[in-house]
Structures are given as structure tokens and as C-alpha cells.
Amino acid sequence: MKPLLHLWVRRVSELIGVLLVLVALLVAWLRTRM
Amino acid sequence: MTSAGRGPKYRIGAALMWLGVAFALALVPLGLGLLPPAPAARKLAVEFGVGLGFIGMGLMCIQFLFSGRFAKIVPSFGTDNVLQLHRQLGIVGFVFVLLHPVVLILAEREFILYFDPRVNFLRAVALIYVTLAITALIVTTLWRESVRLTYEWWRLVHGLLALSIVFTGVVHGIQVGHYLDPLWKKVLWAGYAVTAMYLVVHSRVVRPYRARKRRYRITAVEPQPGDVTVLTLEPEGHAGLKYQAGQFAWITLRSTPFTLQQHPFSFVSAANDRHVQFAAKALGDFTSTWKDMKVGNHAYIEGPLGGFTRDPHPTMGLFIIVGGIGVTPAISLLRTMKQERSTHPAVLIYANTDWDDVAFRDEIAELETQLTLQVVHVILEPPDGWTGESGFLTEEMLARYLPPDPNTFEYFICGPEPLMDIAEISLNKLGVDWRRVYSERFKIV
């Protein structure tokens, strides 16, 4: 059982991770299109 | 201002701002690589793999921002959550760093030659080292006790591994040089990482060194029930330090085998006392030496730190849930209320295994008569004839002592993990605004 705020921190971290992967993909895609 | 009108200490706006700053800083290396003159694009998977590497480096560097003891970001998150964020974002960074070579090798098989010592011995050794080091960093942190690493050794190993990983990352980026070709890019790349690395050197070396110039003298060593020792310290030749009830400091005690080490402890003394007091239960190698301290021994304190504190002008009641030695910040909070002649209502729920092990129990009984304080002892294995609360802390138990309007109180939770989990979850279920619930977990690793 994990406390509430820690779960929240975990979700935020995962969200940041996913967003950063998307940024990496987007940048890679944009570069190949240029 | 009415008591209910005052906003909670944790602010979503400030937290989001700091997260935004972290996000932007993590993207700095990638942005630097993309600045013109950028090389011609290769295929998508290669570009993606390289991007992961740059972001991985950014994520590793921003860890130093969270891991250092930076007072500014703590009030909007709490120490506890900052450390938790460090832990979780560290795992994200680890994934990026590992995916970087995996994606590149999957995209183009020749990238495996980077790991081949026959092609370039130093490069291969460095990359194999980083792969192993970052794995070791994660394993020793998530499973510190399973790998039998003491806290002191873990702290040293963690810092050194992190520094060496970032250092190798800097050299790797410069050596590959594909995206960092002009010299100015290499300089900025190195500057970014060196700044991050300095943060850890600052908090581990510079600040403790400064603290060493301000010596404290032990003026009393007193036992408390439950194998707890209270040390009283007086500043020697300086004014001491200003702190708030509920904060903690890093302590170095001379005359122990741990002369070079720092350990975090909550203040027990009231905020306006000239002397400072700390209490420790003899649980580990370091805390077991406390009872052997002598009056006249010296100590060094670095702090104060932590956001486990009340509003500077409290208008709300205080609801404290603690277990075992987690009582120490509660004692400081209550002593400070007494010092300030506070008339705000306070509730202390204090869980222990045995009645005989209840530290500060006489003083708490006295405080109960001096403050508007209700004390509830929860004893796991109560003595015969015990009429108070017994067993483990439960939601039903908390509900019995919760004020009619729970959001006119601030909540402080400190103690063993299971107690903190149940307390946080129960308060939430009972309708307490999470922004008024402050918790302090020292046992992050």
C-alpha cells in the first residue's frame, strides 16, 4: 500500500517520462522531415 | 482572516512551476544538440535513440537539484515528496540512459561496436562502466537493505556513482561529438553537467565544511524510555541557528567512529530555545553511540532543513500522528506552542509497541495540562488493565479523535512506514484536504 502523495509523485514522474519520450520522438520525426 | 480561510502550505501552482523548471532543464542538453549548426538527420530510429541519450543526460543532471538540500523547493512539496520525486525521476532517467544504446543498436547494428574494446578500448570500457554503474545505482537504492549496504556506505556510493555516471556522459557526448561539433557546444554541454555536479559537491562537501566552523558543545546527555537518548547542545562562540519546530538538521558527532559522517535528525527543542536538542533511538550503529556521548564532546550541525513546519502565524489546530521515535518533531511542535502560549487546539496520537517504551511520556503528560492538548496513546501490546487505545492505528480510531471540521486543522505525520501509510490514507478518506497533511519520511532508501 502506497501513500497518496507518493502515488501522485509517481504518476507525475511517469507522466514526465512519457512526455519526454514523446518530445524525443517528435524531434526525431521533425528532423527527418526537414 | 478566519482559520478556515488561510490557504494550505502546499501550493499546486508552486509545485507545477518547479516541475516545469525541471522538465525544461531536462531538455537543455537536447536543445543544445539541436542548435545550429546541427548535422544532417539520419533515420528516425537513430535520431530517436540519440534524443533519448540527450534527455537521459538531462534527467541525470536534474537529479542533483532534487537530491541536494535545497531549501527553496521544499516548502511547495515537502522534503518527503522532493525525495520521492528524486527517486521516481531517477528511475525514469535510468530507463532513458539504458534505452539510448538499445534503440541505437536496434536501429543500426554497427552501434554495437561502441561497446567493443577491440575498436576503441577506452570508449568501450567507459560505456560498459556507465551501463553497470547506473544499474548498480538503482539496485543499491531500491534494495539497499537486501544488498546489505549501510546507510553511510549507500550515501557515499550513491553520490560517487552519480557523479561518475554524469562525468562519463559528458566525455561520451564530447567524444561522439556528432551533435556537439563546434567547440562552443562542447563547452556549454560540459558547463551544464559540471554545474549539476557542483550541486552535489556543494551539499556534500562545501556546506558541511562551512558547518564545521560553527561548533556546538554537548551540555547534557539524558536517557528517555525506549532506548532513546536526548542530546542538548549549546553553540560555542557563535549565535547558533534559527529553525522552526518540525525541521531537521544534519548532525556530525565528534568522539564517535562516524566523525566524517552526517545523519539527519529532527530538532526536539522548541523553536526559540537557545540550546538545541536532538533525540535518537538506538537502532543503528550511529544512534547506538549516542548514549556514550559525554558532556563537553563536540558536534556540528548543518541546517535547518525540511518543510514539516507550521504556518509562521498559525491560526489552525494541530493534529499530530506519530509512532515510536517519530515523536521527536511533535515534541518540538508542542514545546514551541507552549513557548508561544498558544491556545490553539492540538491532538497528539502517539503509537508505540509497549507502554514502557513511550519516549517523552512524562513531558507529554505535563504538556497536556499546559496546552489545549488531547493526548491519545495507542499501544500495540498494552499492559494489563490498559483502558486506552490498543492495537494498530486504524481509520476508525482516527475518526474518533478527528475534529468536527477537519479542515480547520493542520496534520503532521511522522513514524514507521505502515503507520504513515495508514494515517495518510485514512485522513484522506475522512475528508481531510491533502494539502494540509504534512508527512516526513526519512527512510526513503
Low-confidence stretches of chain A: none
Radius of gyration of chain A: 15 Å
Name the poorly predicted regions of chain B. Answer: 1-6
**Strand segment tally of chain A:** 0
SS summary, helix count of chain A: 1
Give a structural overview.
The complex is a heterodimer of chains A (34) and B (445). Chain A is mainly α and 34 residues long. Helix content of chain A is 88%, strand content 0%. The termini of chain A are far apart. Chain B has 3 domains: 206 residues, no CATH class; 91 residues, Elongation Factor Tu (Ef-tu), domain 3 (Beta Barrel); 124 residues, Nucleotide-binding domain of ferredoxin-NADP reductase (FNR) module (Rossmann fold, 3-Layer(aba) Sandwich), CATH 3.40.50. Chain B has a 6-stranded antiparallel beta sheet with strand order 4-3-6-1-2-5. In chain B, helix 4 runs antiparallel to helix 5 and helix 6 runs antiparallel to helix 7. The longest helix of chain B is centred in the N-terminal third of the chain and has 29 residues. Classes of the chains: A mainly alpha (34), B alpha/beta (445). At the A-B interface, helix 1 of A face helix 1, helix 2, helix 4 and helix 11 of B.
Write the layout of secondary structure elements.
The complex is a heterodimer of chains A (34) and B (445).
Chain A: H1 4-33
Chain B: H1 12-34, H2 44-67, H3 74-77, H4 79-107, H5 121-142, H6 151-176, H7 183-211, E1 215-224, E2 228-235, E3 248-253, E4 263-266, E5 276-281, E6 298-305, E7 317-323, H8 328-339, E8 346-352, H9 361-370, E9 373-379, E10 389-390, H10 395-401, E11 409-414, H11 417-429, E12 437-440
Parallel strand pairs in B: 7-8, 7-11, 8-9, 9-10, 11-12
Antiparallel strand pairs in B: 1-2, 1-6, 2-5, 3-4, 3-6
Helix pairs in contact in B: 1-2, 1-7, 2-4, 2-7, 4-5, 5-6, 6-7
